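Anyone up for a design puzzle?
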């Protein structure tokens, strides 16, 4: 019974860590896209003002 409980806890830990890493990956992708869009729109606004 102790071994089953240990395996269950380890599965939950590794599953949670995997989900956390996948979430970080998507957050990084979204942040990069927003940064590129912001940089492009910022340069367009600066050019149109001059």
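Challenge accepted. My sequence:
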């Amino acid at each position: 019974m102790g071994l089953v409980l240990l395996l269950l806890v380890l599965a939950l830990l590794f599953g949670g860590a995997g989900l956390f890493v996948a979430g970080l990956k998507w957050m990084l992708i979204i942040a990069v896209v927003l940064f590129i869009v912001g940089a492009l729109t910022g340069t367009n606004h600066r050019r149109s003002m001059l």
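A detail worth pointing out: The longest helix spans residues 2-49.
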